[in-house]
Write a structure and sequence with these properties.
Blueprint (H helix, E strand, L loop, with lengths): L3 E3 L2 E3 L3 E3 L4 E10 L2 E9 L3 H16 L2 H12 L8 H10 L10 H6 L2 H11 L6 H12 L9
Helix pairs in contact: 1-2, 3-5
Amino acid sequence: MEYKLYKGYILGPGYQNPAYDVYEVDIFRCRDDAISGNTFHTSESEWEAQQWIDREQEQEYGSAHQWEVDELNKATVIEPKYPDHIMDKVRQSLGLEPGDTSKDAEINAMSRDAVFDHCLNWEGLINYGNQMRDWIQDIYGVNVSTFGV
């Protein structure tokens, strides 16, 4: 038996049901630790079952394409480059809520100097990034700007 995945649904192998003289495709959907199932009756093949799934998603999401975008967004997990407390400060400096990960890819792409500047600005040390880096070099002899991106 061959099962196929189609847009978050599992399509069972189609079969001819002689009792009802129809072609049937079992459709299963997993959501929030629950499985629901339907048997789709069609005159032809699983293609009609796929069309039914598209219509279901258009009703639920507004368009079948929006489902794909939502699923891609769920699957795209950006691992932060910095600890949570640093990410939260940078997010807030950018006008986001602390847990809003929508710009994490952008934050991860920032230079360390830019991340440091955002943290300082959020803490009220506006435009002190260069001065702080200079003090660290003068006091500790460490040029933190040479640590890379």
